[in-house]
Specification:
5-stranded mixed beta sheet; mainly beta; single chain; 334 residues
Length: 334
């Protein structure tokens, strides 16, 4: 009765009373194939876009019986490497030059799994489909450094960094900035484009918010460093409804060039009955306007105390109308 062969490793299954004189050789071949299946290594150069690992009954030369398979060569198109359509497992080292092409690994006639360039895969086949173990793994714990050179997708669960609350910083690089996002664990601070945040949130660069901003529980300070930077508020039709000229130390309403005073109000509308300035004093026993200035008996001060005319007049306020100085008198009685 002739020998038969196993379906997975192509081992020669000897019939009783057969193979007289070659029994030892056949047994050694089988043991060698078993050794290859456990610890064997083979390097295979991909020869075509539909290549196959060799599988030979009874001998030790077949490639598919090895536990570790290294694929080399240069792809000339989208390529599939296939093994036998049997249950088996493999460690595949993809060292092929892929370019823009894909490389699939599958059981003959079955469904492939795509290999990643310059990577190693742990694979198993149920005889019809090839599965990548790490493509759908359970819990993974890395005690050393975990380096990912491809895309990373976190889907279906939370992400926690530094659960043990250790003094460990977190950093995300941008295309041209080494500290696009930086968390300073030791000081409990977050920096954007800085690795040395001086407050809980420190941004080096611009900030844009398209939604509402709520400052609650603390003061708001703009330009605490006293730099020559401007501040601007827009309305529906005015680009400079409120403008602070940081270099000139002036404030403009409706103008970006306050020049005629510390506060410059520019009436933007030339039509309609719109006042330049409206005062509404809700406190009946308080002034509408309070002036603090330099007083003098003549016309050299901003507040005059002259009583030269109109006996009940006790002074006047100096104003300028179209380049000419005038005085507004004020009285001690109604």
């Amino acid at each position: 009765m002739a020998s038969t062969y196993s379906s997975t490793l192509n081992l020669e299954l000897q019939a009783s009373g057969e193979n007289s004189g070659t029994w030892g050789t056949i047994t050694n071949n089988n043991l060698t194939k078993l050794e290859s299946a456990v610890k064997g290594y083979v390097s295979v150069a991909i020869a075509s876009t539909t290549d196959s690992l060799s599988a030979t009954d009874g001998t030790t030369a077949d490639e598919t019986s090895n536990a570790i398979i290294k694929l080399t060569g240069t792809l000339t198109g989208n390529t599939t490497m296939q093994c036998e359509a049997v249950e088996n497992w493999y460690i595949v080292d993809n060292a092929a030059t892929m370019g823009t092409y894909t490389l699939g690994f599958k059981p003959a006639g079955g469904t492939a799994t795509n290999l990643v360039a310059s990577s190693k895969h742990i694979l198993y086949s149920d005889g019809s489909t090839m599965f990548d173990v790490l493509e759908d793994a359970g819990n993974i714990k890395a005690n050393g450094t975990l380096t990912v050179s491809g895309n990373t997708s976190l889907d279906g669960g939370t992400f926690v960094f530094n659960e043990s609350s250790a003094d460990l910083d977190f950093r995300i690089e941008g295309n041209g900035d080494a500290n696009l996002l930086f968390t300073d664990a030791g000081n409990d601070r977050v920096g954007i484009k800085t690795s040395s945040p001086s407050t809980e949130l420190h941004v080096v660069g611009g900030i844009k918010a398209t939604g509402a901003i709520d400052f609650d529980g603390g003061g708001f300070t703009f330009n605490d460093s006293h730099a020559a930077v401007d501040f601007r508020i827009e309305t529906d039709t005015l680009t400079h409804a409120v403008f602070v000229d940081g270099s000139a130390d002036k404030i403009g309403f409706g103008t970006s060039s306050p020049t005629s005073g510390f506060v410059n109000i520019d009436q933007a509308s030339s039509t309609g009955a719109i006042a330049v300035l409206t005062l509404d004093q809700g406190d009946a026993d308080q002034e509408f306007i309070k002036f603090d200035g330099t007083t003098g008996s003549g016309s050299t001060a901003s507040v005059s105390t002259s009583t030269a005319t109109d006996g009940s007049k006790v002074g006047a306020l100096k104003i300028n109308v179209n380049g000419t100085d005038f005085w507004i008198p004020y009285y001690a009685t109604n």
